[in-house]
Amino acid sequence: MSIKFPQNFLWGGAIAANQVEGAYREDGKGLSTSDCTPNGLFGEIINRNETEITSIKDRAIDFYHRYPEDIALFAEMGFTCLRISIAWTRIFPNGDEEQPNEKGLAFYDKLFDEMAKYNISPLVTLSHYEMPYHLVTKYSGWGNRKVIDFFTRYAKTVFERYKDKVKYWLTFNEINMSLHEPFTGVGLARNSTKEQIYQAIHHQLVASGRAVKLCHQIIPDAKIGNMLLGAVAYPLSPKPADVWATHQENHGWLFFGDVQTRGYYPTYMRRYFKENHINLHITDQDREDLKATIDFVSFSYYMSCCGTSDNSLRKKGNILDMVPNPHLKASEWGWQIDPTGIRYLLNLLYERFQKPLFIVENGLGAKDKVEADGTINDDYRIDYMNDHLVQVYEAIEDGVEVIGYTSWGPIDLISASKAEITKRYGFIYVDLNQDGSGSLQRSRKKSFYWYQSVIKSNGETLKYKPSI
Asked: What's the average model confidence in pLDDT over 131-136?
């Protein structure tokens, strides 16, 4: 079967500032919440010394200094799009300053100019699993309504600065993650109540709406979207109780998309709030701000799960509590591999939201072996991505409008969940060990040349496999 993606399809990869840049206190950068979780999303939160190196994330893969080399490698693969995030603390080190940090702004100017040399379009996330730590200690994070204004100032600043260089924007990375890790998502203590978490989420949704409106005003030819963690669940069995429990579980994350595409809270969440005694403070201005809806829906997809009314079957993964699917195999990190799930998810989201979709994270974390001759034969990664991209093609054939695909971690980076370099996603290998040793030298894996051929052929070199 011949495969061909749409002519204007955007091909590329996705990285995050706190997982690649390093230089965590260079050029005036402030401390972020990511800096204060040196062992990953679910690790200990520390009030750290502001100068000592305490985490592999502090240097990461040194993208801050090596970005020209990395952008050239992405261009060699044929990227037409690169998703990056701006570190809020490079622009406003504490988050509440009146004026931005010029050195931080200048860095992203240079980065975008480097990408422009190779005709790589930036897709920029405003907040990717980090915020100024000062906003947590002084204002209690997103639990404080004032943070909406601080974020709005930050968004306005970068929109005005990069309006001629960036035409694709995202507001918050995996915004539904706040339900599972409130410190990372909204800067709240992990023992916060449901009401506190949802109030902080409300403030973030309002801030997202304000950012959308500003983007449309300042950069009329730009597109701005949201970003969901696509944690789709299937019923574990056809029992009505399992089907309904699955429906409710999917509501838990789809609600974020409902608000951002429709401009108001869905009725099912109002019942949820009522039954869980959650009373949110929502102003008339909030309701007006929420009406500014996104242009497209973006999401990450790594795995599916099952829904059931039997909570004893749930297992704790390194991201979510979930019920495993007995019909699927799993990666080394326990993430179940389900290529058909991405086709199902694309259809589900398109039918629900009627907005163009952008797959902005998908990939396989694995322990790569460097052979004696320096090669890395990561056929497992090639198989994983081939099978997922075939299902993306199937969804496009189903009639789903898909803007593009940016694989997660086109270059090895520090994993978010546990701050590991041993969990590698890249097409490009980085010589770095968990103890921080290594030359940081870059080298091409087998998958580098595979992805290069996929992009060059616009998908024609993919090996077709039917849905399983």
From this structure: 97
Checking DSSP bridges between strand 442-444 and strand 428-430, what pairing results, if any?
antiparallel
Q: Is residue 467 part of a domain?
A: no
DSSP string, 213-240: HHHHHH-TT-EEEEEEE---EEESSS-H
Residues belonging to the active site: 361
Contact 40, 416 (CB under 8 A): yes
- What is the token pair recorded at 251? 């509501």
DSSP codes, 146-211: HHHHHHHHHHHHHHHHHTTT--EEEEETTGGGGGT-HHHHHS--TT--HHHHHHHHHHHHHHHHHH
In a domain, 463, yes or no: no
Question: Residue 330: what pLDDT?
Answer: 87
Mean pLDDT of the chain: 95
Token pair recorded at residue 213:
């409106």
**Residue 457: what are its φ and ψ, rounded to 5°?**
-90, 0
Question: Is residue 468 assigned to a domain?
Answer: no
Give the pLDDT of residue 49: 66
Nearest by Cα to 8 from 205, 149, 138, 168: 168
Assign 314 a pLDDT band (cuts: 50, 70, 90). Answer: confident
Residue 462 in domain: no
DSSP SS3 for 427: coil
pLDDT of 2 above 60: yes
Neighbour-count burial of 99, counting CB atoms closer than 10 A to its CB (0-12 exposed, 13-18 middle, 19+ buried) = exposed
Strands 223-229 and 296-300: parallel
Contact 452, 394 (CB under 8 A): no
| 459 DSSP assignment | T
What is the pLDDT averaged over residues 76-94?
Answer: 98
Range of the domain at 75: 10-456
CATH number of the domain that 343 lies in?
A: 3.20.20.80
The count of structural domains within the chain is: 1
Cα gap 260→289, rounded to integer Å: 11
In the predicted model, what is the mean pLDDT of residues 207-223? 98
